[in-house]
Amino acid sequence: MTEKELPKYQVIANDLLAKIQTGFYPQNSIIPPEIDLAQKYQVSRPTVRQAISQLVHQGYLERKRKRGTLVKKVKIEQEFTHLIESYSEEMSAKGIYPKTNLLYFKEEKANSEVSKNLQLPLNEPVFKLVRLRYANNQPIVLVTTYVPKRRVPELINYDFAQVSLYSTLEKYHLKVTRVIRKLEVLAASETTANLLNIAVNEPIFYFHTQGLTADEQPIEYSIAEYRGDINSFVIDVRR
């Protein structure tokens, strides 16, 4: 169905949702009053009210007495606790626009924590990759990843702001087939808080991930720091 064929309230609801998802109407902000929106879209107030009611029902907006209609802080369900897929794939499947900023990508020597998780000798060369990842233009997770240089020296040639690490590893027959994750809840440091746009000492989900190939060899060790205020995690346990 084209936009011209949609009911007017649905066109307005779609436009308001797009503005919420792109940050034009930030979380916890008040959207314009119904009378202003009716003038903007050149429709009646009941039509605007119907569009807003739909977004309230879907959990994007909340009516506040004496204040107006508020953009809710919607939590993003992260399913990587039981799925192995790239960040972009997971976000896109949810209808969320993903973006990655590459903050750091260089060769370093493995410290004790990295060498233990990658099963490498201390000080062996590894690639260190730091990425800040966004959902609908909002920073949600800071990821620091280590990969053994000797297993895939060509990695330095890739731009991981644009391409997936897992997809790239798969090109070199190093597909991650199993992961081991450890979860902690910690207070955000000043650096992490600044990057994730939260207050210092706010709670963050702190995931350590060891990625293994089919031969059970570790190819990746990552530390992911997720904002606690807008992320939730799906745990799928079966007997």
Give the total of beta strands: 10
Mean pLDDT: 87
Judging by the overall fold, what is the CATH architecture of the largest domain? Answer: 3-Layer(aba) Sandwich
- Based on CA atoms alone, the radius of gyration comes out at 22 Å
User: Structural class of the helices, strands and pairings?
Assistant: alpha+beta
Number of domains: 2
Total helical elements: 7
| N- and C-termini, Cα separation | 43 Å
Q: CATH H level of the largest domain: which superfamily?
A: Chorismate lyase-like
Please write the string of helix (H) and strand (E) elements: HHHEEEHEHEEHEHEEE
Helix content: 25-40%
What proportion strand? 25-35%
Please give the order of strands in the largest beta sheet. 4-5-6-9-8-7
Task: Give the low-pLDDT segments.
Answer: none
Protein name: GntR family transcriptional regulator
Pfam families: GntR (PF00392), UTRA (PF07702)
Domain HTH gntR-type: 6-74
GO molecular function: DNA binding; DNA-binding transcription factor activity
